[in-house]
Amino acid sequence: MVALLIPSNEHSAFIGRFSIGALCYALIALAYKASFKIIEVRLSIERLLPPSLASTGFKDGLRRRHHEDINMPATVILGAQWGDEGKGKLVDRLAEQATWVARFQGGNNAGHTVVLGEQVLKFHLLPSGITRKECHLVLGDGMVVDPWVLDSELNGWMESTGEDPRGERLFVSERAHIILPYHRYMDSLDTKIGTTGRGIGPTYADKINRIGLRFGDVNEVLGDKNWAESTVMRMNASLESAGSNDRVSVEGLMGDIEWIHGAYNTSIGNTGLMLDNALKLGEHVILEGAQGCLLDIDQGTYPFVTSSVTSRGNASHGAGIHPGHVEDVIGITKAYITRVGHGSMPTELEDEVGNHLGTVGHEFGTTTGRKRRCGWFDAVVMRHAQRINGFTGLALTKLDVLGGLDELKICVAYELDGKEITELPSTASALARCKPIYISMPGFPEMSLSEWLAMAVHANEAGKGISVLPAAAQQYIAKLEAIVGVPCTSVGVGPDRDATIDCV
User: Does residue 391 form part of some domain?
Assistant: First the structure.
């Protein structure tokens, strides 16, 4: 505490000058001390880095920036429909300017496709930024991870590139839950929801019931036969009760744990801390969502939803960082809409237009291979997604698929029991009774994928944005922006990485 004394005697001037001088000296000393504290904090962060990062330019950057106060905002990429919107392609493209790409929820029920010329890459667990060698990759706190599927993807990546990113640029959260064979057995019994059968739901159920196994627990239970025996007893009782003929064994479970430890012990770590430190040091982080807003366990079309929170609110939480880090939220939406699995879809088309969208758009699930149901763009769905997520921009994909259709329709409202509504009903039964209310717009000509690609390359190189598109296509985009209330940041016109037009 500094007290300012007002002298009242003949030495007041001298004492006053002395007091002010002392105060200034004290403030300088505090600032000097604080600078050392900042350096100490930065060096503390450095000591927390994994060895693989500590040996790179990451340390140099840390020392270089010890005197700076840098906080780079994270970018969240979310599906704005029922999934399959094209998140993989967009993340791959944006990752060129990023140093970290992190998934924050879901598991191998995701299917992200990246097209590099003639090479088609499909990822179910690996973040789409893996194609960018400068990117570090995170499977975050909120995920459920099948270690065998991950190993298969990594083996495929190693065969094509020669790189094993484990412990070098791929890190698995110690808080992420493990999908075990038991969970897949349980999921195979589903006939109601139409899940991918990958064990996602049962693993999240164990998580909520606080009986799940996390990657950080592996080292703790390694070789613990008592834990294995009690766990196997519980699992087999559940399988029997559910009507499954599958069973697990103590030897099998202990062997699984030993294999997981051997395969991933160099990769398991506090990934939330890694991301937080990276953001503080000015690194660009992309948080990659899986599925879509309408599959969110709370905000989606329940009960035909996934088992995790797919929306913006879970992006930072599932990654292990605070929400203040997030600034940009890009919602990905097709120029039409698709859905896989059970549940109502008011704009679904079972006519020639629906066949056109499915055929031209190659609408088959990346994970399941199931044919996707196709329909006109649904603004009611998009308004709901926008309210939940607060998108700062829309990434419109597959505009090219609409080429060749004489008339384009947009659903702007529903008719429910004789009344017009503009918001998504909360119940599956009410949604099933909804009839779409459309507005119509003129279509635009069909073009080949090579023509669309050339148009996109020219638009970006010349800085022309969507002005290169046919007038009717531009009008369609403008109408979607007006209805949803969010500007488009990019427009996809083909599967190739470069077949995306940046809006200017």
Answer: yes
Cα–Cα dist 96/279, whole Å: 17
Spatial contact of 103 and 275, defined as CB atoms under 8 Å apart:
no
Q: Dihedrals φ, ψ of 178, to 5°?
A: -100, 130
| In-domain check, residue 470 | yes
Q: Residues 252-278: pLDDT tens digits?
A: 999 999 999 999 999 999 999 999 999
Q: Provide the pairing of β-strand 100-103 with 377-378.
A: unpaired
- What crossing angle do the helices spanning 250-264 and 147-161 adopt, rounded to 10°? 40
Which residues does residue 136 pair with via DSSP β-bridges, in sequence order? Answer: 100
Start-to-end CA distance of the chain, whole Å, equals 55
Of all residues in the chain, what percent carry a pLDDT higher than 70? 83
Asked if residue 393 is part of any domain, the answer here is yes
312 part of a folded domain: no
* H runs (alpha helix) in 188-312: 200-208, 218-221, 225-241, 250-264, 271-280
- Identify the active-site residue in 84, 296, 378, 400: 84
pLDDT at 370: 78
Is 112 part of the annotated catalytic residue set? yes
Residue ranges making up the domain that contains 38: 12-64
* Position 491 pLDDT exceeds 50: yes
Would you call 124 a catalytic residue per the annotation?
A: no
CB count in 10 Å sphere of residue 116: 12
Going by the DSSP 8-state scheme, the letter that residue 469 receives in this structure is S
Name the least confident of 49-58, 178-187, 266-275: 49-58
**CA nearest 153: which of 51, 18, 263?**
263
Model pLDDT, residue 9: 44
Domains in the chain: how many in total? 2
Strand duo 393-397 + 326-334: pairing: parallel
Point out the domain boundary residue: 47, 64, 81: 64
Give the active site residue among 92, 112, 384, 400.
Answer: 112
DSSP 443: -
Looking up residue 351, the CATH number of its domain turns out to be 3.90.170.10
Q: Which amino acid is at 342?
A: H
**Final residue of a structural domain among 64, 79, 101:** 64
Token pair belonging to 1: 């505490």
Task: Return the pLDDT at 193.
Answer: 67
Q: Residue 168's CB: how many other CB atoms inside 10 A?
A: 18
